[in-house]
Amino acid sequence: MSVETILFGISILFFLSILACKAGYRFGVPLLLLFLGVGMMCGSDGFGIQFSSLPTAQAIGTVALCIILFSGGLDTKISDIKPVLGAGVVLATLGVVLTAALTGILIHVIFNIPALGTIPLSLTASLLLAATMSSTDSASVFSILRGKGLNLRNNLRPMLELESGSNDPMAYMLTITLIDLLSQGGAPDYGTAILQLVTQFAVGTLIGLVFGYAFVWVINKIKIDNASLYPILVLTACIFVFSASYFMGGNSYLAVYIGGVVMGNSRFVHKRSAVNFFDGLAWLSQLTVFLALGLLVNPHELVPLIVPGVIVSFLMIFVTRPASVFACLLPFKRVDRDSKYFISWVGLRGAVPIIFSILALAADVPHARFIFNIVFICTLVSLVIQGTTLATVAKRLNLIDAQEEYGKVKDFDMELSDDIKSVLAELTISEQILNYGDKLLKLPLPESCVAVLVKRDETYFVPTGKTELSIGDKVLLISDDPEGLKDALAQMGVAPEAEAETDDNAFSFKDTFVNTHKDIIGGIKDISSNIKNGSFLKF
After folding, report:
1. Which residues pair with 477 in a beta bridge?
2. How far apart are CA 92 and CA 347, in angstroms?
3. Count of CB atoms within 10 A of residue 97's CB?
4. Residue 521 has what pLDDT?
5. Contact by Cβ (8 Å): 436, 489
6. Of the candidates 421, 436, 438, 413, which has an alpha carbon nearest to the alpha carbon of residue 488?
7. Whole-angstrom Cα distance, residue 343 to residue 284?
8. Closest residue by Cα to residue 531 from 325, 301, 315, 318
9. In 3-state terms, what secondary structure has residue 423?
10. pLDDT in tens, the chain (539 residues)
11. Rounded CA gap, 464 and 34, in Å?
């Protein structure tokens, strides 16, 4: 095909995916599920687009994960994750290992039952299948939570962001290690594999820290006349950290995430434009990799594997993920039971498991295609069951704080740097507000509040205290006293933004899954007690 034909096809796929995103935000469907659906619809069993190049898919996935993890690091605030750092790190490391181990053992036992009629897998192959699915997908989780405007209690949001942003490296290391063990054949050398895993973890962490600070210094010292090149320089840092870690024997995914965290919590020139650039680039990366994965799968191959795929999915949703979460959070008494329930439910699978299963395909390990198809089914089941019910589960567990937003900025394309602690608000002049007077100085605004701009029709101008206001004017306010500004807007009759409501009747199976999940997790307390008193082996 010509380049023009390929570009035309890509533009159509992107447009369809963006339309699907609009519907997804409305109904709470994970964007990943919609992207995958568009890819599958346009693939070999749909409109006939042929895409079967594993090296290309692997390259797309590697580059996309590099950018997504770095962007996630840029958005991670150390001040937010500090109170939950211990719990988040344990979930991202030990939690991944426990999930992979428990799931792998159960898969090995179940898939060797003759009545199931599936392919018997060795213990190592079963662990590989489980390892590819042992990390969670942050993009899908927070596209729903943020799209619904949910404000989670008990520091759950930073904990889940930390876990989902940093658990991919551990899952990657487990996957690569198990692929090497299967490729070697014979008796696996688990001691060497563990040593390699620890080495990659340590080297990746060190490289992320060193080069993250180094690039902050370089960006602040270098003088570039064209400000548009600074985001490109940050992209260069992202790519360099990722590739340098590979050549130095570290884990590239961990290094690039830590490098992003370091740069995101440092001050450097044109930081705001770089962060916005990476936000858009991360969405483009997600869109590209999800579409590619949808095109890569052959839906007709999934049909015979639906039963074993659903069995594995339910094991992870209702048994192994809750067990690992409750076990990992035993030392953290501040995390209450309902929070553990919700964290267990947020074990959402996304693009990363599919990308990791492509690594097994590329290495041509035994039963690689079977593993890939099972992982794809598990991802779809997880997105449908967990992804569509996250908001409902949070609401039923009473983990949502009502968040009133007064004067949300809509008509002014302006935002403040994170280093500036002031807040922006937009005031629409109504007849009720004009009862206080038709001049700006007569409005009951706090002393620390300044009117920056006024939009009248399509004209913008800087006001003074004597500026006469008209109905329909939009006034941009900036204040160092958020509470005082909120009280003033409420006094003038400005209503807060309506809190996003979840549609409890959208899916009839929601209550069933929420209640079943709580009942099953109730039994996890017994498992946790056994782990705590040392009788887990007896159990």
Report:
1. 425, 451
2. 11
3. 18
4. 46
5. no
6. 436
7. 28
8. 325
9. strand
10. 678 877 887 788 777 777 766 666 555 556 667 777 777 777 666 666 777 777 888 888 888 888 888 888 888 888 888 888 899 889 988 999 999 999 999 999 988 887 766 788 889 899 999 999 998 876 666 566 555 556 788 888 888 878 887 788 888 888 988 888 888 765 556 677 678 778 888 898 999 999 999 999 999 998 888 888 899 999 999 999 999 998 998 888 889 989 999 998 998 888 888 888 888 888 788 778 877 877 888 888 888 888 889 999 999 999 999 999 999 999 998 888 999 999 999 888 877 888 888 888 888 888 888 999 999 899 889 888 887 788 788 888 888 876 556 567 777 777 776 667 778 888 888 888 888 888 888 888 888 888 888 888 888 888 888 888 888 888 888 888 888 888 888 888 777 665 444 444 333 333 444 454 444 445 444 444 544 454 433 32
11. 49
User: Cα separation of 34 and 524, whole Å?
Assistant: 33
| CA angle, residues 209, 212, 217, in degrees to nearest 5 | 125
Quote the pLDDT of residue 158: 81
Give 500-505 contacts, CB < 8 A, sequence gap 24+: 500/147, 500/148, 500/149, 500/150, 502/28, 502/148, 502/391, 502/392, 502/395, 503/27, 503/28, 504/392
Q: Is 181 exposed, middle or buried (0-12, 13-18, 19+ CB in 10 A)?
A: buried
Q: 440: closest CA among 466, 418, 402, 410?
A: 466
Q: Which two tokens stand for residue 226?
A: 């064209």
Q: Report the candidate in 147, 157, 149, 101 with the shortest Cα–Cα distance to residue 126.
A: 101
- First-to-last CA distance in the chain? 60
Is 0.90 topped by the overall pTM?
no
What is the rounded distance in angstroms from the CA atom of residue 352 to the CA atom of residue 356? 6
Q: Tokens for 474?
A: 């939009």
Grouping H, G, I as helix, E, B as strand and the rest as coil, residue 425 is strand
What is the β-pairing status of strands 449-456 and 459-461? antiparallel
List the 474-479 sheet strands across, edge first: 423-428, 474-479, 449-456, 459-461
What are the tokens at 91? Answer: 């979930």
Q: Which residues pair with 459 in a beta bridge?
A: 456
> Do 424 and 409 touch, CB atoms closer than 8 A?
yes
Q: For residue 444, what are the contacts with CB-CB under 8 A and spacing of at least 6?
A: 436, 488, 491, 492
Tracing tokens 């602690």 back to the chain, one arrives at: 421
Rounded distance, CA 324 to CA 327, Å? 5
Q: Which helix (H) or strand (E) is 314 found in, with range?
A: helix 306-315
Q: What is the sign, positive or negative, of the torsion defined by CA atoms of 312, 317, 320, 324? A: positive
Strands (E), 355-396: none
